[in-house]
């Protein structure tokens, strides 16, 4: 479950952002919509514990994020959150396979080769396992980052524009994997998106909510 109350964030040399109160049940899907610059990525960073709220509360998987220290939040994130950020943050020095193995290690899990292969295969990038990120196309890198995000069957999946550089077939595979992974683990899924394909894909979901971000106070 994720809930927010009177949540705001002010960048040091940027705008103050205000977010409407939200409550998403465990297993629910939340779409973050809104114009470019309206705060969707910021909301995800707050939910992932990468940013600390300026005021208000955000609780993610029973954890009040505003009370976590930076160190505790890193450990909590590795175990709890599957995060697909807009900038993919794949380690350039590591192969695709090593990038995923490192995510398992960071979460304190022993290497699970089956899970790793399954995640890469489901997204059609298993043949790229020995490549370095610089040797991937934009869409391939995005699918590898998505495989890493779903690898640990996290309780919360956060995806920032997961279909941005994907063609229809790859977008559909990526959304299916996000949905299946979330359903298998009863995870809460949050997707920030401009892409109308995402809204159409989830339109029949029984537990779907949409949060429209604006730069105005809620
Ligand atoms: N590090 C930063 N310092 C200052 N301002 C920032 C910083 N990061 C983001 N902002 C500003 O905060 C606002 C919200 O940015 P954010 O990236 O959350 O929006 P978004 O809705 O995800 O945008 P997009 O759809 O273009 O990805 C924007 O006005 C942006 O310029």
Automatic annotation (TrEMBL):
- Name of this chain's protein: ABC transporter ATP-binding protein YtrE
Q: Name one GO cellular component term.
A: plasma membrane
Q: Does the keyword Hydrolase apply?
A: no
Print the keywords alphabetically. Answer: ATP-binding, Cell membrane, Membrane, Nucleotide-binding
Question: What organism does the record attribute this protein to?
Answer: Polaromonas vacuolata
- InterPro entries hit by this protein: AAA+_ATPase, ABC_transporter-like_ATP-bd, ABC_transporter-like_CS, ABC_transpr_LolD-like, P-loop_NTPase
Residue span, ABC transporter domain: 2-217
An example of a Pfam family matching this protein is ABC_tran
Task: State one molecular function term (GO).
Answer: ATP hydrolysis activity
């Amino acid at each position: 479950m994720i809930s927010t109350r009177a949540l705001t964030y002010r960048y040091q040399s940027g705008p103050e952002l205000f977010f409407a109160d939200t409550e998403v049940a465990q297993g629910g899907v939340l779409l973050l919509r809104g114009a470019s610059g309206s705060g969707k990525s910021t909301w995800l960073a707050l939910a992932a514990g990468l940013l600390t709220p300026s005021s208000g509360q955000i609780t993610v998987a029973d954890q009040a994020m505003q009370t976590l220290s930076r160190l505790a939040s890193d450990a909590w994130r590795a175990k709890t959150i599957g995060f697909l950020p807009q900038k993919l943050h794949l380690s350039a020095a590591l192969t695709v396979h090593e990038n995923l193995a490192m995510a398992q290690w960071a979460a304190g899990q022993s290497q699970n080769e089956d899970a790793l292969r399954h995640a890469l295969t489901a997204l059609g990038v298993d043949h790229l396992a020995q490549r370095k990120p610089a040797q991937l196309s934009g869409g391939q890198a995005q699918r590898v980052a998505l495989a890493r995000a779903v690898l640990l069957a996290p309780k919360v999946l956060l995806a920032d524009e997961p279909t941005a550089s994907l063609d229809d077939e790859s977008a559909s595979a990526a959304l299916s994997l996000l949905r299946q992974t979330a359903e298998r683990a009863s995870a809460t899924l949050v997707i920030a998106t401009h892409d109308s394909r995402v809204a159409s894909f989830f339109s029949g979901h029984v537990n779907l909510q949409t949060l429209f971000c604006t730069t105005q106070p809620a």
